Amino acid sequence: MVDDPFENMLAQMDRAEEYADVDHGVFERLKHPERTLKVTLPVELESGEVEVFEGYRCQFDSARGPFKGGVRFHPSVTQREVEALAGWMTWKTALVDLPYGGAKGGVICEPKDLTERDLERLTRRYTEGIRRMIGPEVDVPAPDMNTNPQTMAWMMDTYSMYEGYSVPQVVTGKPLEIGGTPGRVEATGRGVSLVTERLFEYLDRDLSDATVAVQGFGNVGSNAARLLDEAGANVVATSDVSGAAYDPDGLDVAALGAHVDAGGLIEEYVAGEIRGGASAADSRWDDPDAITNAELLTLDVDVLIPAAVEGVITADNVDDLRASAIVEAANGPTTVAADEVLTERDVQVVPDILANAGGVIVSYLEWVQNAQEFSWPLETVNAELERRIGTAFDETIEQYDAKGLPDLRTAAYTLALERTATAHEYRGLFP
Ligand code: GLU
């Protein structure tokens, strides 16, 4: 079993190598990040105590354009994880054909234990730490796990203060009022819903009333659940760190959304302690059952959507999985050992670098609007997102069918690796 996400990413690359038209020397080059900066971040907390945090920014590959990728705040962040995530960003931007390379940042912290003021100080100190390596044409951060438009506003402000003028284009995922784009917050979830619809069309199956289990009800999972519900699918289970809610007849996704938006946990919702006002409580349908996150993964559903952390579908639980399709909303949720079993069993897996690319696609659209100093309406953003993720889906399917590849991940990696390698070949080796 591969526990290390970086080893897992390398193993995913290795699975694709035999099918990819990539020179072996270039392929070896693609296994190493360009650079990773580690920063020490002393922060005086609101409590008066000084706590020393550790953060990273990995710039994996820039052959196709400026580095791009989110920043996560999480206790389990490690350098290897950030490097794996930066690699996945490289393959993701190449697969959806954005003029970017891949990067990722992370700070080891438990955001739940920090006040808003603490988070602001930590974000500003981290931005100062990585300030020399980011920039609108160099490396453009964005939100990821536990970071949001407010985090991006602090990053943008800190960077701009040093420059002496406003530089909105240095980050994406900003609030609308300071250069954000409509549609960015729900973009990743919207992309997940769009590729699930495309998958069902490809498989000639009807999405209406197909059962869906979504592991994780954060920004990505909740928006994916809401949009799939609106598309006619039947969302039967979802979860957060406190546990999972399951109702074979379908969950009231809107009521759950209102409860979680009001700061509620899934565990409380299942127990009937519902936040989010009367509307959430009134419209709650039947009482859902409390199940564990592990049980959610093995439900007999049409689609399983892991939308939480990496490494949740492994050799240990893959034999118990009963979903007939998996759409990876999280980055790196499936280990290579589990992948091999799923391929063998013909379970279609839409890989993360395709399924969750909606976020970075709309980040790109935000960056372009900032460069043009011009703003687009939501309809234009959503239409462009649909066009771009739809094209990447079709190209992945074409590659899978035409080359008779073992699975969709191998097809997606083959395309991404070939595109990145071609950029390296044109540019050549310096000096
Ligand atoms: N953090 C998101 C991802 O993993 C978005 C990155 C971005 O928008 O740059 O794809």
CATH class of the largest domain: Alpha Beta
Largest sheet: number of strands, sense, barrel closure? 7 strands, mixed
Radius of gyration: 21 Å
* The CATH homology group name of the largest domain: NAD(P)-binding Rossmann-like Domain
Distance between the termini: 40 Å
Instruction: Specify the helix fraction band.
Output: 40-55%
In short:
The protein is an alpha/beta fold. It has helices at 5-17, 24-29, 79-95, 116-130, 149-163, 187-202, 219-230, 253-261, 266-270, 277-283, 293-297, 336-344, 352-355, 358-372, 378-403, 408-427, and strands at 35-44, 50-61, 67-74, 102-108, 139-143, 211-215, 234-240, 243-246, 289-291, 303-306, 325-327, 348-350.
Provide keyphrases for this structure.
16 helices; alpha/beta; binds glutamic acid; 7-stranded mixed β-sheet; 431 residues
Please explain how this structure is put together.
The chain is of the alpha/beta class and 431 residues long. The chain folds into 2 domains: 30-167, Leucine Dehydrogenase, chain A, domain 1 (Rossmann fold); 187-355, NAD(P)-binding Rossmann-like Domain (Rossmann fold, 3-Layer(aba) Sandwich). It has 16 helices and 12 strands. The chain has helices at residues 5-17, 24-29, 79-95, 116-130, 149-163, 187-202, 219-230, 253-261, 266-270, 277-283, 293-297, 336-344, 352-355, 358-372, 378-403, 408-427, and strands at residues 35-44, 50-61, 67-74, 102-108, 139-143, 211-215, 234-240, 243-246, 289-291, 303-306, 325-327, 348-350. Helix 6 (187-202) crosses helix 15. The radius of gyration is 21 Å and the shape is globular. Bound molecules: glutamic acid.
